[in-house]
Structures are given as C-alpha cells and as structure tokens.
Amino acid sequence: MRKIFKQKKLFGWLFWLWGLLIVVLSSLPNIPNQEINIWGDLFRLDYLEHFGIFAIWGGIFIVWKAKDGVFSSKDFIWPILFCILFAAMDEMHQLWIVGRSFNPLDMIYNVLGLLSAFVIGPYFLRWVYKK
User: Fold this and answer.
1) What is the Cα–Cα distance from 95 to 62, expressed in whole angstroms?
2) 54 closest CA partner among 92, 23, 9
3) Which of 53, 69, 37 is nearest to 106 (CA)?
4) I need a surface site. Which of 65, 87, 95, 126 has the fewest CB within 10 A?
5) How far apart are CA 111 and CA 83, in angstroms?
6) Does an H or E element contain 27, and which?
7) CA dist 122 to 28, 42, 97, 115, Å?
C-alpha cells in the first residue's frame, strides 16, 4: 500500500481532477435533496455528501504533499487555507446556479470534511508507513 502513496504525480492529478469534479457537480442545476428521519428529526443526506467529498479531497492533498509518510500542517498552512477557501467559494457560486442556493450548513460540512482529513489523514499516513 505504501507504494501507491509514493505516486506523487498521480495524487497531484487526482487532487486537481477531484477539485474539478466538485465544481462540475456543484454547478448542476435543480438537484433534489434526500432526507432521512433520525429520531423524529429530518436530516439531509447531502450534508454527508459534502463532508465526504471534501474529506476525500483533503485526503488526496495530504497523500500528494506528504514527504515519506509525514505531513506537517505547519508547512502547508497556505494550501490548507486555499482548500478551505475553495470549499467556501464552491458553496457561494451556487447563488448563480438555477435551482441551487447558498446553504451555510453545506459550507460548514465542506470545511468540516477538509478539517477532518487534515487532522486524521496524517495519522493514517503514519500508520500505513509503519507497516
């Protein structure tokens, strides 16, 4: 598994392609929201989608930028801030898409997905490289 994580060029391409996929998907008009009932309250499933999509994107970034299985957030504060700004702007651009709207909770889940990747991802990398 370590071998695939050393394919930096591949993860660089995946990072930018995943970002493009996020822009394309968030630009699609009139996407219905699915909801489930949890203990009498409705929960929108797209919140989990936002969280997951951005957590994966953050994970790809970590693997791309890690050096020998070590990712130091101190060294990558500007790229991390770029990713968080991208997550916020992705939600804001939906103001101009027919049938879509700006939802602050969507933006929060975008950022939470990224932050969780930036917190959990380095530990996962260390675990993989220890094996």
Assistant:
1) 30
2) 23
3) 53
4) 95
5) 9
6) none
7) 33, 34, 36, 12
> How many CB atoms lie under 10 A from the CB of residue 131?
6
* C-alpha dihedral sign at 99, 17, 47, 118: negative
User: So where are the chain's domains?
Assistant: 2-130
Tens-level pLDDT at each residue, the chain (131 residues):
567 767 889 999 999 999 999 999 888 888 777 777 778 877 778 888 999 999 999 999 988 888 877 777 777 788 888 888 988 888 888 888 888 888 888 889 999 999 999 889 888 888 877 76
- Name which of 126, 86, 125 is nearest 107 in CA terms: 86
* pTM (two decimals): 0.84
